Amino acid sequence: MNQPQRVDPSTQDSRVRSANAHWGPRFVANGVALTDFEEVTASIASWDDWCRAWSDRAALHEQMGREALAKKKFLSAGEHLNRAAVYYHFGKFLFVHNIPQMRAAHMKAIACKTDALPHMRPAGERVEIPYENGKLYGILRKPAGVGKPPVMIMCCGLDSAKEETEAYEQPFLARGIATLCFDGPGQGEGEYDFAIRGDYEVAVKAVIDAVERRGDLDAARIGLWGVSLGGYYAPRSAAFEKRIKACIALCGPFDWGDAWESLPELTRDAFRVRSHLAGMEDAKRHAATLSLKGTAEKIECPLFVLGAKLDRVIPWKNAERLAQEAKGPVEFLLLEDGNHVANNRAYKWRVQTADWMAEQLDARGG
Questions:
Q1: Could you give the CA distance from residue 59 to residue 273 in angstroms, rounded to a whole number?
Q2: Strand order through the sheet with 124-131
């Protein structure tokens, strides 16, 4: 492999410098090799080159996966293709100023992940969920050796998608809980046909209805999990959807409109595009419709809330307010040294939240 040429850091534009400074923990915690992160980000001078650079590195992992498939080394193939999917995803995740290039990388992420699913441990299944006049798509994984397990429905954030969540899924699978991560409106495969909506419980209802139509999951034991903006979507849905037995909210906003002015430029632009809006003023008005004001007190199920003191995207006071206003039992974990979603301190909350959810759903694994 030819190493990409490093650029002078002083010549990198502000968006690239911001990415390099703040995204490393998330990328590495969710499957990017540290050396790959360092080499790829050091080679990018302009944000215009971001998606291409990550796609180039993703292609190397994809090639190893295709070669492993040809040799019938299926476990290795699953690992390589899953990593390639993560890299393609991180190439496209905020690259909304060039939709054709973004979508091309996205389709590669979906293809790699889909091809990896049968060879992952445990294996995954691509599922279709009827929703409004179309479909949402998700990935279902069931713990080995557990008949009719409880299920954790997983809500992604503004820029995450089901191709990124394997590391999040593993602690729950190890404890006997099936995981169903889906792309909702404005997310992943749902971002092209469906705009971001504040009443996310409509999408969660469709997912729970789909779970109830299956015979291999225990629909009486459903948990809900949400990360970042999904940390709003999940508790919002728990307030209205009473089939949810317990909920985890990770560093989500209490009111997206209140947070708007302090959000990074790339985040605001991604929200605008995925809300299917033309201008920033329209996006700002729409952001105000994503709020837990008058709603948090309707949450009656057990709730686990994570906040992080060093979060530059969503200040920790948002998590504290959710924990204070929810009506049901709440466990609030505030990490003094955590960044956004505390990916820099994942060992302080990932297995802990899985243990908590296993107790709430009476899971029989691990």
A1: 27
A2: 124-131, 134-141, 178-183, 151-155, 222-227, 244-250, 303-308, 330-335
Strand 134-141, strand 178-183: pairing: antiparallel
Give a yes or no: residue 72 inside a domain: yes
Can you tell me whether residue 294 is helix, strand or coil? coil
CA–CA separation, 34 and 26 (whole Å): 11
d(CA 159, CA 161): 7
Is the pTM higher than 0.90? The answer reads: yes
Cis? peptide before 302, omega within 30° of 0: no
Coil, helix or strand at residue 135: strand
Question: What local confidence, expressed as pLDDT, does residue 22 receive?
Answer: 87
Are 106 and 89 spatial neighbours (Cβ–Cβ below 8 Å)? yes
Question: How many CB atoms lie under 10 A from the CB of residue 142?
Answer: 22
- 150 φ/ψ angles, rounded to the nearest 5 degrees: -65, 165
pLDDT digits (tens, 9 = 90+) for 28-85: 999 999 999 999 999 999 999 999 999 999 999 999 999 999 999 999 999 999 999 9
365 within domain boundaries:
no
Q: At residue 365, does pLDDT exceed 90?
A: no
Q: Which of 114, 134, 164 is the last residue of a domain?
A: 114
Q: What backbone torsions phi and psi does residue 306 show, to the nearest 5 degrees? A: -110, 130
Q: Which domain holds residue 300?
A: 123-360
Residues 154 and 70 in one domain: no
Both 324 and 207 in a single domain?
yes
> Which amino acid makes up residue 278?
A
Nearest-angstrom CA–CA distance, 291 and 226: 15
